[in-house]
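Final report, closing paragraph on structural work. Over the funding period we assembled a curated collection of sequence-structure pairs, and we close with a single example.
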Amino acid sequence: MDVLNPCGSRSRQVDGLRRSDYTKITDIVCGRAPVSAVRAPVRRKVMSPTVLQQKRHQQILTDVVRAYIETGEPVSSRSIVHRHIEPLSSATVRNVMADLEDAGLLFQPHTSAGRVPTAAAYRFFVEQVAAQATASPADLLWIRRELAAAQTPEAVMERASHVLAAVSRGLGIFIAPPLARSVVEHLRFLLLPDGRVLVILISGGGATRDKLIRPERPFLQEDLDRTSEYLNRHYIGWTLEAMRADLRKQLEQDREQYGQLAGTALILCDPSVLGDVADRKIYVDGAAQIASSPDFTNPEQLRELLEAIEEKDRLIALLSGCIESPEPVHVELGLDKISNAGKHLAIVSASYSSKDQVQGTLGILAPMRMHYERVITAVAFMAQFFSEEQEGS
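Its predicted structure, as stored:
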């Protein structure tokens, strides 16, 4: 498995992006700069193997990877001669491609065929070529238009997964913030005749979450009203996580004054009781594109992959790599952990944040043969978009 962190700068980051990337994207969103200013937040790494120290070998490998991404067909030396800016003979190109094959960067499916990039070649391409990518004005305008067309927070998140799928011709994934990190705009508790309590939480942007719980002890509706009134007066704009921490602090400082009220709030606003993990929302689009991809010819492997995609917990775990990574955009090539077909897949993911806390993640799961420049810049832009949405809510 090849794990890439192609955005390796340790410079000061703002909501998952380096400050320079943040400034550029903010200017674009606010209309202060042309959308063409957004570049892929990827740094260039030291190249390996040694064959890639030669510029001609780098250029020809780049041409081979580009040609294969575009066509999906093994790439011949003749096609590289036509693509290459510098005049080269077919013999020269064949010799270079043979060197690249010996270095494990290309392989030949059969003797009469051209060459196909390996995972190592894609790694080179991501680190050295996609690092210089600039988002196209058309892509950024289209993304903003698509997201702006959604009328509710849930619709925006659903639209985000659709946009990611369209950009990659793969699976677009958007994971909503966990309940514990939801920013509270309003809370209400309703007592049912059987003693259960309906918890209604309106979070940032107007997203509504509700959960029916059976508390540890019985409550009267007046107790619930008093608790919700107190929370709505003192904790609007707080996350559940921060709110619970402050309530515990109050209990420690003055149990006599806050004991019953804070205790009730802690019971009713416990993320584990509210089903934080089980009810976490994940939006997925593009499974049909994965199923129809020519990269998957084994029906059994494809079936196993589609089953894995349907498991929400596995997708959440898959995107968690970008949370662990200090880099703005996380790229992973070869995903054997998801299924046997995973060796043909890559994931490009990023987290979105609010007040220096990761809120959720978004990303693309697609065949390794994808347009990395377009995908990486789109993922970076959308992560920043949702970071700003969280900050503004």
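Confidence is low (pLDDT under 50) at residues 2-37. The first strand starts at residue 2 and ends at 4. We thank the funder for supporting this effort.
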